Amino acid sequence: MSNHAAAEFEPLNMAVLTVSDTRTAANDTSGDLLAEKLQAAGHHLQARELVRDDVYVLRAVISGWIADPAIQAVLVTGGTGLTGRDSTPEALLPLFDKTVGGFGELFRHLSLADIGTATVQSRALAGLANRTLVFCLPGSTGACRLAWEGILAEQLNSQTRPCNFVPHVRAPKEAAHG
């Protein structure tokens, strides 16, 4: 599936946010998985938080990370379903300068093999805000693994050809100068 050229790998500075009214740092398996996967791939974990499912809390945390020149990509897990308190899409869509429509479509396509037609209830999405990528994933550990292994590992790798997300984020040199 991937075509890795001889280009040099460029590690990204990333943050992980878990959105949950029930999980704690002790049982946040989805956040743990994302933090482990991104570091194993050679990226840097710059920040990690766990917050309750609240539109304004979500916007505050993500807005801070979008404004932080040291953070190039954010992985959000949780709050993308259809239950009453699931509000990640509503909270974050207004912050995006551009949406990455294909991300949610591809995630649901890959998810079909695992959970069947229930995948239509996933509101996974992604966007670009202030040259920071934001990926909103379901809260299940299996869904986070699927997103990482099926999409994110390649698209956050500067060596993936014919294209990847890396040119769309702030370069570390740009971050250091403002």
TrEMBL record:
One of its GO terms (cellular component) is cytosol. Keywords: Molybdenum cofactor biosynthesis. GO terms for biological process: Mo-molybdopterin cofactor biosynthetic process. CDD domains: MogA_MoaB (cd00886). Transmembrane segments: none annotated. It holds the Pfam family MoCF_biosynth. Residues 15-159 form the MoaB/Mog domain. The keyword Lipid metabolism does not apply. Pathway: Cofactor biosynthesis; molybdopterin biosynthesis. It comes from the Bacteria. InterPro entries: MoaB, MoaB/Mog-like_dom_sf, MoaB/Mog_dom, MoaB_proteobac. SUPFAM superfamilies: Molybdenum cofactor biosynthesis proteins. NCBIfam families: moaB_proteo (TIGR02667), molyb_syn (TIGR00177). PANTHER family: MOLYBDENUM COFACTOR BIOSYNTHESIS PROTEIN B. May be involved in the biosynthesis of molybdopterin. Belongs to the MoaB/Mog family. This is Molybdenum cofactor biosynthesis protein B. It comes from Natronospirillum operosum.
